[in-house]
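for the recovery benchmark. tokens below, seq after
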């Protein structure tokens, strides 16, 4: 979208956010006893992961194992495997909705942040020009806002023509 396009214009009601967060926390508290703690993604990076394509394979494997117990290796526990699979399946809608909410919240914050930063940058550029022209009221504002850019290199905003 072109710079200056207003893609979002919403006034958030703090009470609504607080109430929503309270409901999220209540939902989290209900599910928390079923979630694992103390395992990191790094610890799991070399493990085989179950994706959607693996669901029918795992489901059939458990069903076959339950009806053919004599074929189940001693190191395998069908009851535990079935519990794990049920947990995986029951948490699927939780993961789906949380991922959707997370993405939507993230994108909304990103757009709101972009627009707010564009405003602040445009305002700073204008005030900086006013200060350079000697407008007394603009000087302290330009000085304060300019602190953000101290030590930063200017970005080349002109396209490279290769010449």
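predicted aa per position
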């Amino acid at each position: 979208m072109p710079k200056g396009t207003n893609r979002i214009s919403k006034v958030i009601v703090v009470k609504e956010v607080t109430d929503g967060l309270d409901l999220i926390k209540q939902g989290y508290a209900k599910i928390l006893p079923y979630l694992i703690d103390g395992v990191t993604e790094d610890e799991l990076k070399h493990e085989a992961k179950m994706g959607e394509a693996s669901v029918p394979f795992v489901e059939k494997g458990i069903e076959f194992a339950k009806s053919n117990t004599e074929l189940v290796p001693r190191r395998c526990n069908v009851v535990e495997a079935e519990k794990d699979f049920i947990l995986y399946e029951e948490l699927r809608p939780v993961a789906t909705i949380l991922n959707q909410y997370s993405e939507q919240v993230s994108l909304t914050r990103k757009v709101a942040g972009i627009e707010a930063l564009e405003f602040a940058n445009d305002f700073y550029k204008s005030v900086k020009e006013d200060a350079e022209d000697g407008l007394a009221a603009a000087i302290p504002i330009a000085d304060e806002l300019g602190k953000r850019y101290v030590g930063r290199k200017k970005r080349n905003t002109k396209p490279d023509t290769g010449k």
